[in-house]
Each structure stands twice: as structure tokens, then as C-alpha cells.
Amino acid sequence: MASESFKAPAANVTGSFNDRPTLPTSENPKSWSKGKKWVVTVVASLMTFSVTFASSIFSTAEQQTAAEFHVSHEVTILGLSLFMLGYCFGPLLWGPLSESHGRRLPLMLGVIVFSIFQVPVAVAQNIPTIVICRFIGGLFACSPLSIVGATLADIWDPVERGIAACIYSGATFSGPVLGPIVGGFVVDSYLGWRWTAWLTLIQGVFFWVLGIVFVPETHAPTLLRRFQARECSSETRDELGRANANPPVSHMNWREFMTKYLARPLVMLASEPILLLTTLYMSLVYGTLYLFFEAYPISFQDQRGWNAGVGALPFLSITIGVICGNLTIAATTVLRLKRKYNEGGGKVAPEERLIPMMVGAVVLPPGLFWFAWTSSPHITWVPQVLAGIPIGMGIQVIYTMGLNYILDVYTPYAASAVSANTFVRSMAAAGFPLFATPMYNRLGISWATSLLGFVSVLMMPVPILFYVYGERLRKLGRYSIT
């Protein structure tokens, strides 16, 4: 059904156009060795880490840049928010490009251009240069976020992908969590705020080089087209012409590209309730994480009087929570999902992904309320810092299993589904920091964080709803598998 949009011309290597082509086992990414798959997974995840690290590290430079360029703190927050705004619009291009031209080209192009745009940030002499280049950097930086999830779907079966997705989502969240920690000590040192951009450039180029070496093409339709072009005999090429022997992408006009690929993520988001609600839930937790990049300094630096470096260390508790979330996912994958997969003869219902997501939905709200009501400077910092563990665990499990559920439900259109998801999530991540400071100043830390807790309680039924009704909704969907 859905896969027809990705089919190359129905030709085999002998020149007959009657049989539906198939990719030989030796060329199929799902047939790669486990070692090769894990190398691709880890390196692609490191590329994701490099761009998410860049998203948050600038938050520690906001006070220094505000002082140097004589602007308000609210203006410098745009350095974070506009980077995330780039995340919003980039997926509408990168995801469709990965479906029409393969995963590797847009992935590598995005990471290297993102890295290059760190240079004008590092040498900037005014705020407009910083925020504009951060926005452009974000447009290109989101290519791994739009593509790597689909890459995992290309190479792993559903059970093993659950573990691989832990690595990917761990990189997605450890990057923005570690960014303020590293950045805090950098801006407090003799290096100054400009080195937040230089460090981003260095690690971005390093992981890009690793990607060039270790991440090959994984998109099966693209590999099939290349295989046909390679294997087609010279006689067949002479007879049929290069137009039939080469990928059809070269003949796709812009109107077809716009309607077939570029518009698809938005159409899916508007017409698929599973994608819409799962995306909204993931956007809440993702936006909450980026809101904390403004809320944590208010709580630990402004109220408790810690410096920028030490004030960022509480983010480590969120990292511990992310690790706990990954262990939870791994345990449910090994103990339940693998058994269901074997019992189903190599098939498993996508709704099985939602069981750990329910756990995350239950864990997150208490963590937020815990953080809220231990935030008083008259209370020791220990319980407030420890609250980051259930927060990190809840965010990680909800995000990872939500992503896996989307990949399972929309496998033939994985890149478009992830692009739509990334677009909305990034809107939340761009917007939440903008209202964080006014909200926390007006409501106070306790009630502002409690508000997030109440909203997370309202979203708790989402995984339960899809666990019960998901199969019926999939049968009604145009893009979902049945």
C-alpha cells in the first residue's frame, strides 16, 4: 500500500518491467551484521548528540552576551529559541529529502553546514549576527533529528530497534542536558562565551567525519535504484536509455516533489490522530526539558546563589533519570516485547511500545511536583536536585517509546512522520524558553513547575488510549500500517 510511493521503476536486471523489483539480501541494510548495525547506530546517534548539545550550550552564554552587547536577557534568549525555531522548519525539508534522495546525503550535508555556521557565532560583533546564524544553524542541525530515527527503522527489526532507539534518544537528551554543564564552566573560565561556539564547531566536525566514514546509505528504495543502475547490462541501457536505468528522482519536477514529499508530513499530522496526539505529548516533555534551561538557573543560581558552572550540575540528575529510563525500556524489550515478537512469528503489535510509555507517564508528574515544592532556598538543595531523576526518566521513556510507536505505525513513511513530529516538538522547544522567565518570575518556582505537572497529568491517558484503541485507529488511517 504505502510503499508504492517509494518504489523504483518495476524493472529487474534483465530489463523486464513486469516484475516488482526487490533488493538482494546482500544489499539489504537489514541483512548487515550486528556489528555494522551497532556502529551505524552509535555514530548516527553521536551526530545527533552534536546538534542537540549545540541547542542548549548557548543558554549559559546569555548573561555574558547581554552584558557585552548591552541588550536585555530576553533578547539573548533568542539565541536558544531561534536555534530551536530552525529545528521546526528544517524537518519539512530534510525528512522528505531523505525519502527522495536517500538518508546519507541530507544527513551529512546538514551536519557539516550546521558546524560551519558556528564560526560566525564565535566571532560575532553584535546580537543580530548571533541569533541569525543560530537560526540558520538550527535549520541544518535538525537533519539528524529528522533522519536518524528513519535510519534505525531501515536497519533494525522491531525488537532490536527498541534497544537501538535507547541509544539514539539517549543522545537526543544527553546533548541538551550536558550542554549547559559544559557551557557553564566554559563561560566561567578564561575562555569566555565565544568558546561555546568553538567547542560546538570542533565536536560537530569530528562527528561528521565519523559519519562520512561509518554511516553508509540505508534507504532501501535508494539502494535498489543504485543496484539496478549498477547491474543493468550495457545492452539494456542502450535499449532503454539512461532515463529508465537511473533513479526516477532525477525526473521528479518540483511540483511533484512538493506534493509527494514536502507536503506529506503536514498532511499526516493533520489526518492521523495517532501521530497528532503522540506528537503533542512528546512536544510537552521536549518543551519542558528546554524550559528547564531557563528555570534551573533561576532556581539554583538566582535563588540559591550558585555560579554558572556549579548551577548547571543539577542537570546531571536528569541524565541519571535518562539512564534509568533506558534501563526500563531495555528491560521491557527483553522481558516482554521479544517474547511477543517470537510468539507472533516475527510480528508484534505497535501498541506493545506503549506499556513502558505508561510508566513514563506515571513517573513524570510526581517528579515535577517534587521539584516544585522543594525549591525553597530554606530547604536543602538535595531533594530538589534528586527530583531530576524521575523527571529525566519520564521524559526519556515517553519520548523514546513515542518515537518507536510512530516508527512502527508509519514504517513506510517513517521519515515524513518523524519530520512532522520534529516540527511540532521543536516549536515547543523554541517557545517554552521564551515564556519560562516571565512565568517563573510571576508565579514563582513552585507554582510555575506545578503548572507543568498539572498539564502532564492531563496528558497521562494518551498511551492508555492508544493501547486500547490504537489498532482500530490504524485501520482507519491512510498512512498507518494495519
From TrEMBL:
Principal location: membrane
Domain of life: Eukaryota
Bias kind Polar residues: ranges: 13-31
Database matches in InterPro entries: MFS, MFS_dom, MFS_trans_sf
Region (Disordered): 1-32
Membrane topology classification: Multi-pass membrane protein
Keyword list, A-Z: Membrane, Transmembrane, Transmembrane helix
Claim: Nucleotidyltransferase is one of the keywords in the record: no
Gene Ontology cellular component list: plasma membrane
Positions of transmembrane segments: 38-59, 71-93, 105-123, 129-153, 165-187, 193-215, 274-293, 313-334, 354-373, 385-406, 447-469
One GO molecular-function entry: transmembrane transporter activity
Major facilitator superfamily (MFS) profile domain sequence ranges: 40-473
PROSITE patterns reported for this sequence: MFS (PS50850)
Subcellular location: Membrane
PANTHER family (alphabetical): MAJOR FACILITATOR SUPERFAMILY, MAJOR FACILITATOR SUPERFAMILY (MFS) PROFILE DOMAIN-CONTAINING PROTEIN-RELATED
Full protein name: Major facilitator superfamily (MFS) profile domain-containing protein
Organism: Aspergillus arachidicola
